[in-house]
Amino acid sequence: MPGFYKRVKKIIDDSDIILEVLDARFPELCRNKALEQYAAKKGKPIILVLNKADLLSSKKLRLKFEYPAVLLSAKKRHGLKKLRALLGITKSKLKLKNPKIGVIGYPNTGKSSLINALAGRKAARTSIKAGFTRGEQWIRIAKDMLLIDAPGVMPIRKEDEFLYVLTCSKNPYELEDPELNAIKLIQLFKEKSPEALQAYCKFPIKSLSPEQILEQLEIKRKKLLKGEKPDLETMAKILLHDYFSAKLNLKI
C-alpha cells in the first residue's frame, strides 16, 4: 500500500489536471477520497470520468458530484467530445499552455481504453485481465496536451473482497472466496437488474435464493445426474469471469 500511494502521488505531483477514471455502474465505490484530497491540496483540478456507460440502461448522468464529471464509453468512443471540452475549459481557466494530464483509477476501470480513444490509436495495451497496464508512459492527445498513463490504483482493503468484484479489479480466479462473492453478485443482480440475471440463467429465478441460483447454474452447466454433487466453486469462478467480461451485464 505505501508503494501505491507513493507512485500515484508522484503522478498527481507531475500533472496539471487529474482524470479519475471510475466504473459508471459504481462510481462512488471507485473513488479514492484520500487521493482526491491530496490533489486538491496541491491545487490540481479533478475531472471524474465515469467510464463503461455502455453498460448502463440510462445514458444520462444522474448523480451529482463536487467535481466536474463526464459519462462516457471509451470502448464505444461515446462522450469523448464532452471530455475534451471539459479539458479545454479547465486548461483555459487555469491559463495552462501545455498541460500534463494525469490518469488514476482502479485496474479495469478502462484507463487504457480511455487513453486509446483520446489518442485516436492503440496507445496503451488493453486486456480483460485486471491490472494489465504496466509501467508509465506519456502520450500526446493534442498538439498542446500530454496524457500520462499509470499502473492501476487499488486502495481496497483485503477484507473488502467484494469491492474487487464490483470494480473488476482482481482476477476472479485469484479471489479467496469466489463462491461467497458469486452469491453476493447474484443477490445484487436480483435487486438491481433481475432481467439481466434471468437472461443469463435461462431458467426461472424469481423464487430461488442466490445460493439456489448458483447451484442450478452448475447443474445446467454439467448436466448433473441425480445425486451428483455440484462444483459450486468452479461455477462461481465462471459466473464472476462472465461478469468481468460483460457477458453478464448489470444494467442500472
UniProtKB/TrEMBL annotation:
InterPro entries associated with the record: G_CP_dom, GTP-bd, GTP-bd_ortho_bundle_sf, GTPase_MTG1, P-loop_NTPase, TRAFAC_YlqF/YawG_RiboMat
Keywords: GTP-binding, Nucleotide-binding
Limits of the CP-type G domain: 5-156
Keyword Transmembrane helix: no
GO MF annotation list: GTP binding
Pfam families: MMR_HSR1
Plastid in keyword set: no
Full protein name: CP-type G domain-containing protein
Record PROSITE patterns: G_CP
